[in-house]
Amino acid sequence: MQLPVYLDYAATTPVDPLVAKRMSECLSLGGVFANPASRSHIYGWQAEQEVETARRHVADLLSCDPREIVWTSGATEADNLAIKGAAEFYSNRGRHIVTSCIEHKAVLDSCRHLESRGFDVSYLRPDADGLISAEQLNRAIRSDTILVSLMHVNNEIGSAHDLHSLGAVTRDRGVLFHVDAAQSVGKLPIDLSATNIDLMSLSAHKVYGPKGVGALFVRREPRVDLVAQMHGGGHERGMRSGTLPTHQLVGMGEAFRLVGELIGEETARLTELRSLFLDSLAALPGWQLHGHKTQCVPGIMNVGFSGVDGESLLMSLRQLAVSSGSACMSATLEPSYVLRGIGVSDEFAQSALRVSIGRFTTRADIETAVIAIINNVRQLRKLTAVF
Ligand SMILES: *Cc1c(COP(=O)(O)O)cnc(C)c1O
Known about the structure:
2 domains; 11 helices; Aspartate Aminotransferase, domain 1; three-stranded antiparallel beta sheet; 14% strand
């Protein structure tokens, strides 16, 4: 059986072979397997050294201090720690939080949880491109606002926020700024030394690292405090207890180091493949691209079609591994809340495909995808045409 072409890089990426190799060196007896917290022998010291090298790689990519990186099990945990941890710590200053209605579920559900604990959350509605403007954010901040949480790049439509202008507003108004950067790391430059961001969620598996590991950037200057959400041995300066998984962290470090080297050429190559996809699809009438056309990452293309049933389309595209809406929502058949949130009509939202490309996508993959999509949309339209 011919496997489908993998075009779901926004859901997860394959681990880069160089990353997998480094990880495999940190598992068994001959490798760096020990507990990084073991202070009494060389096995532990070696593991700690590997973990700290990985921390430096992550910090280097973002231009921050390694001491500002707190390891977590992924961006979901980082979002939880940032939002619940900050809300709890600063609740004596105020109990209002600002976010948007198209955030990742890890952010939205953390906010919902806080609402049940007496916090007040404003869910801003983005513009038709999926973006919140600095003026809109400024209007939403109140005297009792303590935290703003907005994603850098949206995982379904790829639109990218201007973090400089948003960060200028939060710093000016004296509120914390949390950014979920799971989809932007390694795709857009991030400079935390020059941007007013207080907390940033990171994930390894969206950038060719392993699943089940991530980090939260927690700014030291000006200092940000959090209430820990995981209690135990006091690892990670008390912010996140749990034995550090050396192989996972080495994998994340190597993935971040690698993408730092490759970001320039990778962006150029993916931008070309994006143009090839969108230009080739122009042969078909009745479709639209969701998300900002230029202020975006090149790897995510969300397209909706008129006059086509979404489920039939997805079923007919068996030679392509793509997502309808977001992978996290694919257990339910509702049109994506993100597409609804930016005002996409039901017709285009229910038929939307998220085609996401990455490091191992070829021109041939794109050509296969375009031919399959054009042929199947035409076929389905013929079948459903009302005469
Ligand atoms: C994938 C993703 C997450 C969740 O990250 P995990 O590491 O899988 O927990 C959070 N936010 C965004 C924007 C994502 O794309």
